[in-house]
Amino acid sequence: MNTDGHIDVRRPPVDVEIVVPVYNEAIQLAERITTLRRFLDDSFPFSSMVTIVDNASTDDTFAVATRLADTVPGVAALHLPRKGRGHALRSAWSTSAAPVVAYMDVDLSTSLSALVPLVAPLLSGHGDVAIGTRLGRGARVVRGPKRELISRAYNLILKVSLHGRFTDAQCGFKAVRREAVQQLLPLIEDEEWFFDTELLVTAERLGLRISEVPVEWVDDPDSRVHIVQTALSDLRGVWRMSHGRGRDLTRRPRTGSTDPQATSDELMRFAGVGAISTLGYLFLLIAWRPLFGTYGANAVALAICTLFNLAAGGLFGMSLGMTTLALLAARTIAPASLPLDLVAVTVANAVAAVLRFAVLRGWVFRPTAVHQSINPEASR
After folding, report:
1. What pLDDT is stored for residue 54 in this prediction?
2. Domains in the chain, start-ordered, CATH in brackets?
3. What Cα–Cα distance (Å) separates residue 68 from each residue in 3, 13, 107, 281, 344?
4. Selected catalytic residue, list 105, 107, 128, 196
5. pLDDT score recorded for residue 181
6. Stated pTM of the model
7. pLDDT over threshold 90, residue 333
8. 325 or 361, which is more confident
9. Mean pLDDT along residues 283-291
10. Which residues contact 11 (CB under 8 A, 6 or more apart)?
């Protein structure tokens, strides 16, 4: 059994290799993998391999994975010396000989009945990437309002800032053709949770075919995911992809405030930054609410977000005033209701963003000396 991430000799060629990244899952791993393997043997019409990838667990996870690989046909195990879901998928997918590689979360939150429609189009050559979606039409999801709000807000940010056309970037249920994997992996930088988003955005930019499968999904209350930390990391990834290599550079230069295309581009840029700032603000509000109270957490979250958006620094008081009034109004309707508080401050921030755009447009988006130096004839 290899312990350095290289291919395991007990991973024979199959139609589909399903990777299950794990970290400190020793207690439930055997039950979950046995359930998955039983479904594949009884109801999955393609040959398959389940590969458990241990991300530097500190408990007996790899010992359990090794025992499963030794005793259960169709199960393999890999060990990696460091954490990271993206790192796990990259290591397993890049060494797989299967025509289609997939992955799913070990909690099996997604109904396994969606596995066949997920991989079938890829095996038949009618798609390159397939994803499960909890937000598309026909999906059935059971989870709390906080996770629902965060998920929808995050995917809205992807639509605005990265022009993503997919509906659910972070559902732990995806499959990719091997040829597409070979194209995508060298272009993906992230090794952790943002790997999923970067995979899909890069696939869209390459013109690969992405299909979506509505899934039945039940939230796992024992999830190892740290929501706030993961969300902030994802926002950094969104910022990198929207400003770094591979972003859309085909938009025409701005020629003045009367150009309709310039106005549209300005609005999209402002909306993208505003959406990222708003989601970061909501995470900070939720995280610090128990420590500072709702009003104190609101002020601190706004102050920190303002530091990352210096162009709006002079309008901090306007945002604080509007969100405070929104919280007061929410409290008169339902005291101490976090979902209502979040809705109220989100609406208030949206209104404040419109006002900021109106005030700052002439400053932030005005023509600069750089444009004049590129086009010297424009000043004559």
Report:
1. 97
2. 16-221 (3.90.550.10), 261-366 (no CATH)
3. 16, 19, 17, 44, 50
4. 196
5. 97
6. 0.67
7. no
8. 325
9. 71
10. 17, 49, 51, 76, 95, 96, 97
Judged against a pLDDT cut of 60, whether residue 259 lies above it is answered with no
Question: Any bridge partners for residue 51, and if so which?
Answer: 19, 76
Q: Is the pLDDT reported for residue 364 higher than 70?
A: no
Which tokens hold the place of 9?
Answer: 């000799």
Per-residue pLDDT tens digits for 298-314 = 777 767 666 555 444 44
To the query of whether residue 196 is one of the catalytic residues in this protein, the response is yes
Comparison of pLDDT for 70 and 153, the residue scoring more: 70
Out of 80-94, 146-160, 219-233, 240-254, which region has the weakest mean confidence (pLDDT)? 240-254
pLDDT at 267: 52
d(CA 96, CA 17): 7
Alpha carbons 131 and 40: distance in angstroms, whole number: 19
**pLDDT recorded at residue 309:** 53
Quickly tell me which residue has 């007996």 as its tokens: 60
The full length of the chain comes to 380
Residue pLDDT, tens place only, 323-332? 777 777 777 7
**Residues facing residue 50 across a β-bridge:** 18, 75
SS3 sequence, the chain? CCCCCCCCCCCCCCCEEEEEEECCCCCCHHHHHHHHHHHHHHHCCCCEEEEEEEECCCCCHHHHHHHHHHHCCCEEEEEECCCCHHHHHHHHHCCCCCCEEEEECCCCCECHHHHHHHHHHHHCCCCCEEEEECCCCCCEEECCHHHHHHHHHHHHHHHHHCCCCCCCCCCCEEEEEHHHHHHHHHHCCCCCCCHHHHHHHHHHHCCCCEEEEECEEECCCCCCCCHHHHHHHHHHHHHHHHHCCCCCCCCCCCCCCCCHHHHHHHHHHHHHHHHHHHHHHHHHHHHHHHHHHHHHHHHHHHHHHHHCCHHHHHHHHHHHHHHHHHHHHHHHHCCCCHHHHHHHHHHHHHHHHHHHHHHHHHHHCCCCHHHHHHCHHHHC
